[in-house]
Amino acid sequence: xxxxxxxxxxxxxxxxxxxxxxxxxxxxxxxxxxxxxxxxxxxxxxxxxxxxxxxxxxxxxxxxxxxxxxxxxxxxxxxxxxxxxxxxxxxxxxxxxxxxxxxxxxxxxxxxxxxxxxxxxxxxxxxxxxxxxxxxxxxxxxxxxxxxxxxxxxxxxxxxxxxxxxxxxxxxxxxxxxxxxxxxxxxxxxxxxxxxxxxxxxxxxxxxxxxxxxxxxxxxxxxxxxxxxxxxxxxxxxxxxxxxxxxxxxxxxxxxxxxxxxxxxxxxxxxxxxxxxxxxxxxxxxxxxxxxxxxxxxxxxxxxxxxxxxxxxxxxxxxxxxxxxxxxxxxxxxxxxxxxxxxxxxxxxxxxxxxxxxxxxxxxxxxxxxxxxxxx
Length: 376
Ligand SMILES: *Cc1c(COP(=O)(O)O)cnc(C)c1O
Known about the structure:
There is one protein chain. The protein has 376 residues and is an alpha/beta fold. It has 2 domains: 17-245, 3-Layer(aba) Sandwich (Aspartate Aminotransferase, domain 2), CATH 3.40.640.10; 248-373, Aspartate Aminotransferase, domain 1. The chain is 36% helix and 15% strand. It has an 8-stranded mixed β-sheet with strand order 1-9-8-5-4-2-3-14, with helices on both faces. A 4-stranded antiparallel β-sheet has the order 10-12-15-13. Strand 2, helix 4 and strand 3 form a beta-alpha-beta unit. Helix 3 (59-70) packs across helix 7 (202-212) and helix 10 crosses helix 12 (360-373). The radius of gyration is 21 Å and the shape is globular. The two termini are 29 Å apart. The structure holds pyridoxal-5'-phosphate. Residues 58-60, 84-85, 87-88, 132, 158, 160-161, 182, 184, 195 line the site of pyridoxal-5'-phosphate. The site of pyridoxal-5'-phosphate has 14 residues, from helix 3.
């Protein structure tokens, strides 16, 4: 018999999503927009503690509209975390901007404030900072916000992976001028696909909604003064989101328990280190990751292959953007001229299966396979 696959992170439905969808069917609010969209925006904004939110088709669309709202144009430099998914920086290119990639630090794996300061030294006219809270762990927000204030540059937080995570008790995504969340299939909550743009600036969110609905002017006929996009979330999709949001706290607890289980299980193996979570924050533990010591005989690929043999999904750490062929012409700034932290984490890291539906048995099996590679 084919073994049941153990996933990295797959959708976990709680059942309540159907109620919202059925209501949409019953009232024929299949499209456009509708009450689920409005309510999902309000409920998510209330959850993270911000005043305004726009529900969109994806997290990528949310990043795109955040850059537009800030006014990024042809030739503008945007400082962007290098250790991330390409969706973070692609929208900079959509607007004709120039990404300059910033290295990571070792305490949270996120944007290194020292490297960011160095980047401002080299490019004092940069127009925005776009940082990521990778794998659900908040970046060094205080240090980075201080630098942004000093240079009077707006901050965009890509909190696609970190919904529910807090820094000094405040939700990621609510510190910068704009924050974005993703409800893609493998994120901590999912709508099958979707995203949210949040801000304290109500007028900016209103403008984002306007761009997201084809930039239709308020006329009876179709009047257009700007280029628009078809980026708005549907009422069906938003219904799934409303149901999912009810489980977010529980999901974070379950993800934390997965992280704690791995941490305990590998405590005695000196070659394995869990992804670091700084004291000043509460992560959402979206993915549990490990790095292997440089001289470890077991390599990340050995772990991924051994797991795959048992039909268990794992994956490499994101390959840094400054190492991607498509972005090779753009600059990269690191604290050190000779050593890149993001590249080092990529070379030594693995994302372990972190699916909320992993049973105790699944966890034992995964841990057993990895321990066996270290002869433990
Ligand atoms: C998933 C993800 C995105 C993109 O979100 P989509 O909803 O898939 O467009 C952006 N940034 C990061 C860091 C992500 O993990």
